[in-house]
From TrEMBL, chain A:
Pfam families: TctA (PF01970). Keywords: Membrane, Transmembrane, Transmembrane helix. This is TctA family transporter. The chain crosses the membrane at residues 12-37, 49-69, 108-130, 136-156, 168-189, 318-341, 353-377, 389-409, 415-442, 463-485. It comes from the Bacteria. Residues 18-437 form the DUF112 domain.
Automatic annotation (TrEMBL), chain B:
The chain crosses the membrane at residues 45-64, 85-112, 124-143. Residues 16-147 form the DUF1468 domain. This is Tripartite tricarboxylate transporter TctB family protein. It comes from the Bacteria. The keyword Phosphoprotein does not apply. Keywords: Membrane, Transmembrane, Transmembrane helix. The keyword Chaperone does not apply. It comes from Celeribacter neptunius. It holds the Pfam family TctB.
Length: 503, 156
């Protein structure tokens, strides 16, 4: 492992890679600070730009945006009670109280330190477990891959928010959109309708930007001006007291453990990790009777949790090729575009890429810790740019970015189509994130499904008779039972008796 | 009974179910033109056919949900941002080839900016100038993309 890490640092410390890492985490920090611009939209906007750089640099930068945003998200939460990202929403409670108590500086500093420790622990786990998992995954056949992807999709769409059926329906829609175009096995066209631009399939960038980029703008337009943050945060005010430091450390360890666990599971990710950590602090923190009134544990725990989750989320994505959430799906899509097949072979075939990424994650975390603490004043002043001036520029970047991938006006209409679809889906409360997951995994799923049944001569029992696939199948059934059956039973009880009373 | 049926089918879940049935219809329409094959040797239509079946299944579940919760209405919110944003993108698509990137971007900025009321002409002009300059610097100067800022019909 030491050798591998050395190799990784060799890659990550090259000037170019370091520059992209710096650019990525800075952009991430920036969009994390800004409420209303999330990592998903930012990554889809920058995806086209990475087509011109090496795959390693591209991933280093895009990943930097993701974990950088976890750092930045807490800034607006603490200073203005506006979560910059969903995963830092829970930090508003104690963070903003600390600001009101005049401890904004210390809160920002501790959240950065907690983020760094949480992130570092996540990276260590990744470096330790990813190779083991990858080795294990080499035994997988197409049956296991198909079931693993199915499990990832089912879990991701049902464990997150909202109705499980709606999430699953969106996965199916995503998979269907994913197989649009030329079917390589048979050579027939599917869902192309005479548009030759659709032969290579639906554009991932256009779909992600249409669903998330445009969606965010539509939601945020006309929300009025944000209150500008008041007061200055000086470096001196950032020094936490000894007591604050002593109280936050145990919360950081707990948060890191919680985050590392939830990060690896599909569909849970950093938001659930930070909420779970806050709930834990409520029960076990030394100052638990004062939680919500501005105690450091309420910041340190969730911040450590969302950052460690942001790192361990890469484990299943990189070693199995199964992304746990929409951001990971986009990164996976970026890898595929660059000709890299994520999965257990990646560690063996392109070790410099995998370990370079791991090393860059840690360097990125270090950059975030060192550079961004002095720069907090700058980020705060960014918060003063009104959204009404910002969004037309964001929209133009979205449109030009989509167009520039292959200089195609058709792709702009794809963007438009996905914007409309995203709006309709939001009206009907369908979540968009599972759609992107399905879109990325769709072609892989069909391929593995076909191959499995070809190998078994059309015998469907091949999905349950092999030991690993049997376990995976059991997991899928379990998730179904837990997620689908109780609401369904509730519905059935409700329908017959109450029908006359309610109408 | 009829009241409830009408309410349920126009409720959030009812319209959701309708959307899924439409997706199922589109899928089966396409599948009908493809070879199905059999599990051991799947044709191009086999996998999409399964997806179409899943749409039907989830559509039925949502229909049951709609029947149980007919009073759950959809909320449209403000239409202005949606219409202006989409109109801006269509306009960009139409104008880019005709009049070049600068004018297309200006149109996109102005139309999308008008999604929010109460902008002065000065603010709009400033916004257009800044964004066009920004795009030119990022995409043309720094990234060297083939983005035609000026109309191309004069040059060729």
């Amino acid at each position: 492992m030491i050798d591998n890490l050395l190799l990784g640092f060799q890659v990550a410390l090259s000037w170019e890679t370091l520059m992209f890492c710096f650019a990525g985490v800075s952009i991430g920090m920036f969009i994390g600070v800004l409420p209303g611009v999330g990592p998903l939209a930012a990554i889809s906007m920058l995806l086209p730009l990475t087509y011109y750089i090496s795959p390693t640099d591209a991933l280093v930068m895009l990943a930097g945006i993701y974990y950088g945003a976890q750092y930045g998200g807490s800034v607006a939460s603490i200073l203005m009670r506006l979560p910059g990202t969903a995963s830092s929403a829970v930090v508003c409670m104690d963070g903003y109280e600390m600001t009101k108590n005049g401890r904004a500086g210390a809160a920002l500093f501790l959240s950065a330190v907690a983020s760094f420790i949480g992130g570092s622990i996540g990276i260590l786990l990744m470096a330790g477990f990813a190779p083991v998992l990858a080795e294990f995954a080499l035994k997988f056949g197409s049956q296991e891959y198909f079931l693993l992807m199915a499990l990832g999709l089912v879990a991701a769409s049902t464990l997150s928010e909202g109705s499980a059926v709606r999430g699953l329906a969106m996965v199916v829609l995503g998979v269907l959109l994913g197989i649009v175009g030329l079917d390589i096995t048979s050579g027939s066209m599917r869902f192309v309708y005479g548009q030759f631009e659709l032969m290579d399939g639906v554009s991932l960038v256009a779909s992600a930007m249409g669903l998330f980029g445009l969606g965010e703008i539509i939601t945020n337009i006309g929300q009025g001006n944000r209150p500008a943050p008041s007061g200055k945060v000086t470096l001196r005010s950032m020094v936490p007291s000894k007591q604050e430091l002593r109280d936050s450390l145990p919360a950081i360890w707990r948060g890191s453990a919680i985050g590392s666990f939830f990060g690896t599971l599909p569909g849970t990710g950093s938001t659930i990790a930070s909420f779970f950590s806050y709930a834990t602090e409520k029960k076990v923190a030394r100052n638990r009777d004062r939680i919500g009134q501005g105690i450091v544990e309420g910041i340190a725990g969730p911040e450590a949790a969302n950052n460690s989750a942001a790192q361990t989320a890469f484990i299943p994505t990189l070693t199995l090729g199964v992304p746990g959430d929409a951001v990971m799906a986009l990164l996976l899509g970026a890898m595929i575009v660059h000709g890299v097949t994520p999965g257990p072979q990646m560690l063996a075939e392109t070790p410099e890429m995998f370990w370079g990424l791991v090393a860059s994650f840690w360097l990125g975390n270090l950059i975030l810790l060192i550079f961004n603490i002095p720069m907090i004043g700058l980020w705060v002043s960014m918060l003063r740019i009104p959204y009404r001036l910002l969004y037309p520029a964001i929209l133009v970047l979205v449109v030009i970015g989509t167009y520039s991938i292959r200089y195609s006006i058709f792709d702009i209409y794809q963007l438009l189509g996905f914007g409309v679809l995203g709006y309709v889906l939001r009206l009907l409360s369908f979540p968009a994130a599972p759609l992107v997951l399905g879109l990325v995994l769709g072609p892989l799923m069909e391929e593995n499904f076909r191959r499995s049944l070809m190998l078994s001569d059309g015998d469907f029992s091949t999905f349950v008779t092999r030991p690993i696939s049997g376990v995976l199948f059991g997991c899928i059934v379990l998730v179904f039972l837990v997620q689908i059956v109780p609401p369904l039973l509730r519905l059935m009880r409700k329908t017959p008796q109450n029908s006359s009373k309610e109408a | 009974m009829l009241d409830r049926l009408i309410a349920a089918s126009t409720s959030r879940s009812g319209l959701g179910a309708l959307l899924l049935f439409i997706f199922a219809g589109i899928t089966f329409k396409e599948v009908s033109g493809l070879r199905l094959g059999n599990p051991g040797a799947m044709g191009p239509g086999y996998f999409p056919a399964i997806l179409g079946g899943l749409f039907v299944l989830f559509g039925i579940i949502l229909s049951v949900e709609a029947w149980a919760n007919p009073q759950d209405r959809i909320y449209f919110g403000r239409m202005r941002p949606v219409v202006m944003l989409l109109a801006g993108i269509i306009l960009f698509g139409l104008l880019y080839r005709l009049l070049g990137g600068a004018i297309a971007i200006a149109a996109l900025v102005v139309v999308s900016a008008l999604a929010e009321r109460g902008r002065s002409p000065r603010e709009l002009a400033g916004l257009v100038a800044v964004v066009v300059l920004l795009v030119w610097l990022i995409f043309v100067v720094a990234l060297d993309l083939q983005l035609n800022m000026l109309p191309t019909w004069g040059t060729s």
